[in-house]
Amino acid sequence: MTTALAPSSALSAADRCDRCGAQAYVRVTLTSGGELLFCAHHGREHSDKLRNIAVTIHDETGRLEAAPAAVATEDER
Predict the structure, then answer these.
(1) From CA 38, how far away is CA 54, in angstroms rounded?
(2) Longest dimension (CA), the chain
(3) pTM, two decimal places
(4) Cβ atoms of 57 and 28 closer than 8 Å
(5) Considering Cα of 14, then 21, then 40, then 56, what sign does the dihedral take?
(6) Where does the record place the DUF7455 domain (predicted)?
(7) Dist CA 67 CA 58 (whole Å)
(8) Minimal CA–CA distance to 27: which of 14, 39, 45?
(9) Which domain holds residue 47?
(10) Is the pLDDT confidence value at 7 over 60?
(11) Which pLDDT score is estimated for 54?
(12) pLDDT class for 75, splitting at 50, 70, 90?
């Protein structure tokens, strides 16, 4: 079985990693019908094993690399 990036609802700050409780950026739907949530770190750590048991993997870790919003300096205000 192969896994694919699946369109599903976006993860929010309320979604927490099942391993450590940090904000979840990866949702894994299992062949058994269950679902697991992982932070970026644990998603990467377990990615090889997850591919073997997942129907879909929804990965939003790219959000971590997005450029932060610019903040005005004192001179620009």
Answers:
(1) 13
(2) 57
(3) 0.74
(4) yes
(5) negative
(6) 11-64
(7) 21
(8) 39
(9) 26-63
(10) no
(11) 96
(12) low
